[in-house]
Design brief:
This protein is α+β, with helices and mostly antiparallel strands. It has 2 domains: 114 residues, no CATH class; 172 residues, no CATH class. The protein is 22% helix and 31% strand. The protein contains 4 helices and 16 strands. The strands form 3 sheets. Strands 3, 5, 6, 8, 10, 13 and 16 form a 7-stranded mixed beta sheet that branches. Strands 2, 4, 7, 9, 11 and 12 form a 6-stranded mixed beta sheet that branches. Strands 1-14-15 form a 3-stranded antiparallel beta sheet. Strand 14 and strand 15 form a beta hairpin. It is elongated, with a radius of gyration of 34 Å.
Amino acid sequence: MSSMKTNNSDERGIVSFMVTLIMMLVISLIVIGFAQVARRNQREALDRQLSTQAYYAAESGVNDAVKVISSGAITDLYTNASYTTDCNALPTALAGLGTQSVLNSSGTANVKYTCLLVSSKLKTINWTLVGNQESVAAPLTLNGNLTRLQIEWEASGSQKNPASCGAATSLPRTSAWACDYAMLRVDLTQATSLGGNAAQNLSNNTVSFYLRPVVSGASPTSTVSDFSFGSSPTTRARSSGVTCNSTTGKCVATLTFSGGASSSQYYLRLGALYNDASKVSISGNVNGATIATFSDAQIAVDATGKAEDQLRRIAVRLPVKSSTLPASALQTNSTICKTFTTGSGLPTPAASITGANSLCP
């Protein structure tokens, strides 16, 4: 009788082994995932810090430019075209003057500004105007005789509906102004005909426009030549309706120049009435259709800062000189009493006002 040999295969441990292997794999994936999240958060925090440092480095470049422009130390600012195209031209000039910041393009620090451009001849001039409080003034020195001046502005708030403006038939009180947009006052003086700057010459060579936003049907063009610069114009101011676009949210007015009104140098004063005006932009043409460039009004400064591998860029517009003017010599939101004395021993006007009508203490 033959004997049968039986081999018993015990596989009871294989299940535990597979479960353990799978659990180790899952735990490893979880740990790797958390590690990646931690590294990503750490990198994002570092990038934010470096980005802030790069921004401050770019601000240092702007401050260096402001300092040297204000001091007048760079004498060829308006004639050296390399300041507009070469990132290192102005920093090199600053280093030669000994006024350059330690955060600069030629330094060995990890935080520095790597590019600094300054442009003194601009195709547009930009402002933001505060309604009824201040105005800005700037000389307009152009590359030819001005033939067209375009003025654009937007409402400062979130509501930009030209339908709220109605028709340009009257000028209401401030409390009754329902339009989302500001009305602009534009004073333009032809500088080439001022002569000795006498008061009469200044008056004869200055015209004013009140550009009121309207809902529709207004002509956006006013002809400056009608004012006859250099003589005694019969009309020194004009109110003109300006159609505002509901799609772009912009109001656009165009002033055309011809004959004796066309010149290469003006003084501009611009103010907002009723509301604030944002993104106010001035552009134009000279000698027909040639794009105008403006000098002496503003300077554009473009600075790029770098911190390790992070870059930040800042572009600002700076007035060549302080251009903000108060809207009034004296302004108040409450009743004001004016007392005048015209001669020795004479009573003041307030002395004759008594009772409830008296305004002066």
